[in-house]
Amino acid sequence: MGGDGLGLAQVQFALTAGTHFLFVALTLGLATLVALMQTRAVVSGGAVHERMVRFWGQLYVVNYAVGIVTGLVMEFQFGLNWSGMSRVTGSVFGAPLALETIVAFFVESTFLGLWIFGWDRLNRWVHLGLIWVVTLTAYLSAYFVLVANGWLQRPVGFEMVGGVARLTDAGALLTNPTAVVAFFHVLFGGLLTAGFFVAGVSGYHLLRRTAEVEFFRRSMRVGLVTVIVSVMPVVIFGGMQFEYVQPTKSGGHDAAAAVADFTARFGPDDYTPPGLTDVGAGLMMGMWSLMILVAAVALVKVWFGRWLVRGRVFHILMIASVPLPYVAMLSGWVFREVGRQPWTVYGVLKTRDALSPGVGSGALAASFVVFTVLFAGLFVVNGWLLARFARRGPGGAGLGGSPPADPADPVEPPVLSPTF
């Protein structure tokens, strides 16, 4: 990773970006499922569907709120540790990030606030429209971020003027195949993450022989169908990205030719990606294989719907499967990001040149400790809150007040065991 200062800066950004992405995936997927649940509730008028919206919507809001903090902290590092990147490529790289903040994030957060506090105050169709605006702007936000990252992977639509990148073709930037294909990969990856999460939480309650059998049977079905529908598109769009993979990452003759070209243009250096790249690729493939096997089991369970509430082994399997998409995401992120090294912008700006000048290893070590402790705390807090509200069940959902219970679904009695 280079010198001590450079290595610390890289690890610090890897920690913050990787942690933030874990929040993003679940947020994207849960927003979509909650929007679909609320659509069903508004159209059918069923109380059980409204209770599902409130329960899963509350978990979505918790994950969204903590994830926002991780995203804000991550943004600070561009100015603190990577000012060289901002100076050289800021007018191109910063454009989609500015669009993400102004067009997508502010709209998403505003309408989410209206959705949270608009329960029983707004017309039901208006309230439904709010969650769909939240969902669509969340995907728009993800798209703009991937446009920025796609430009780092495959820079297009720019020219270098006086050592500074200038945007010349906004259309090429916004339709960069590296970004577009990655967007659909992330879209279905978010749904896959949410599907496993919903199925895992439902499996936990069914394993405990909950009184809310019908509620979690329906939720389990939603989670499993989402897994079944999403798992293959994730694999397909992931495979499509190999068409645009950097030559140095692909190996063989293309890699040798790229190394020779870089050596002639930029001087001798280690232009081959670190070995961690192959580890990330292998682990990602392994997780995909496991998720496909679980999806096959889920297909059988969904086909024979009465089996959803039976089988302790199946419920344990779904609980144990919740981490699979997270491990796959982090592994794929390692393959995508680490494999670009030693470049920040592939073939344009080296990582060591993107580092802020004058930032000593002592200052980087101090900020690394602070960021590590902060993100570890946020990760633990998010996990604790999700587990706390998930264990309470639909009877403990406070989002939008207390809805009337569905007469067909008995209220779960209190559990006389310690909760956290």
From TrEMBL:
Q: Which InterPro entries match?
A: Cyt-d_ubiquinol_oxidase_su_1
Where is there biased composition of kind Pro residues? 404-420
Q: Name one Pfam family in it.
A: Cyt_bd_oxida_I
Q: Which UniProt keywords apply?
A: Cell membrane, Electron transport, Heme, Iron, Membrane, Metal-binding, Transmembrane, Transmembrane helix, Transport
Q: Name one GO cellular component term.
A: cytochrome complex
Top-rank taxon, per record: Bacteria
The transmembrane segments are: 20-43, 55-73, 93-117, 129-152, 182-207, 219-240, 281-304, 316-335, 363-387
Q: Where is this region: Disordered?
A: 398-420
Q: Which GO terms describe its biological process?
A: aerobic electron transport chain
Where is the protein localized? Answer: Cell membrane
The membrane topology term of the UniProt record is:
Multi-pass membrane protein
UniProt GO molecular function: electron transfer activity; heme binding; metal ion binding; oxidoreductase activity, acting on diphenols and related substances as donors, oxygen as acceptor
Where are the annotated coiled coils located?
A: none
The family annotation for this protein states: Belongs to the cytochrome ubiquinol oxidase subunit 1 family.
- The protein in question is named Cytochrome ubiquinol oxidase subunit I
Organism per entry: Actinomadura syzygii
